[in-house]
Design a protein that fits this description.
Elements: H1 2-23, H2 31-43, H3 47-52, H4 56-69, H5 73-77, E1 93-99, E2 102-109, E3 114-123, E4 126-129, H6 131-136, H7 146-157
Antiparallel strand pairs: 1-2, 2-3, 3-4
Length: 188
């Protein structure tokens, strides 16, 4: 029984070591994998591992934000520049799009109950989060995301809304609501 317990502990330590070594690689082989590695690094609270999954411009952006707000750089990187990492388990990732060296994926933001479209850039042979590129204006979207397409389709299908004549009231205007000029006084 003791041997079985020691074997389980040893296997757990080896598995944890392999999982941690995977999160330390610099970027991912796809934007989806890059997000998953970033999420694991954020959950491990490993600032250096988080930085390996961020583009150079994003790291510069983080350093600038740290200096401007006078907060420790670790605090700036702690959520990996996305609210989706606040989720207790890996959120759903969908709609990976790639065009040249720019990529994007949609990740479920459980706090806002919306899909967040995250930018990625292929840098040094690996995909990395590209918030710095997006902030500087050098990021070029690989195309519309599924969520944006679905919203546009829903707007096209919805009937047009006709504005009410008096939007401050729920009742239609009546004759009494229309101002009438008093008759002019005649001068004799």
């Amino acid at each position: 029984m003791l041997r079985l317990g020691l074997l389980i502990i040893a296997l757990s330590i080896i598995a944890a070591g392999l999982a941690c070594s995977g999160s330390g690689t610099a970027g991912g082989s796809s934007p989806t994998e890059a997000y998953k590695l970033l999420y694991a690094a954020v959950k491990a609270k490993d600032t250096e591992a988080i930085k390996t999954h961020l583009s150079k411009k994003t790291i510069e952006f983080g350093a600038m934000a740290s200096a401007r707000s006078r907060t420790p750089v670790e605090r700036v990187y702690e959520n990996g520049f996305t609210e989706t990492t606040f989720s207790s388990s890996l959120p759903a990732v969908r709609d990976e799009r790639i065009k040249d060296t720019m990529g994007a994926v949609e990740v479920w933001n459980s706090q806002k109950s919306t899909w967040e479209d995250l930018p990625f850039v292929l840098e040094d042979g690996a995909w990395k989060l590209a918030v710095g590129e997006q902030f500087s204006g050098s990021y070029k979207s690989p195309g519309q995301g599924r969520d944006e397409k679905e919203r546009e389709a829903a707007n096209v299908m919805a009937p047009p809304k006709i504005p009410e004549p008096n939007s401050n009231s729920n009742k239609p205007p009546t004759v009494l609501d229309i101002p009438i000029d008093p008759p002019a006084k005649s001068s004799k």
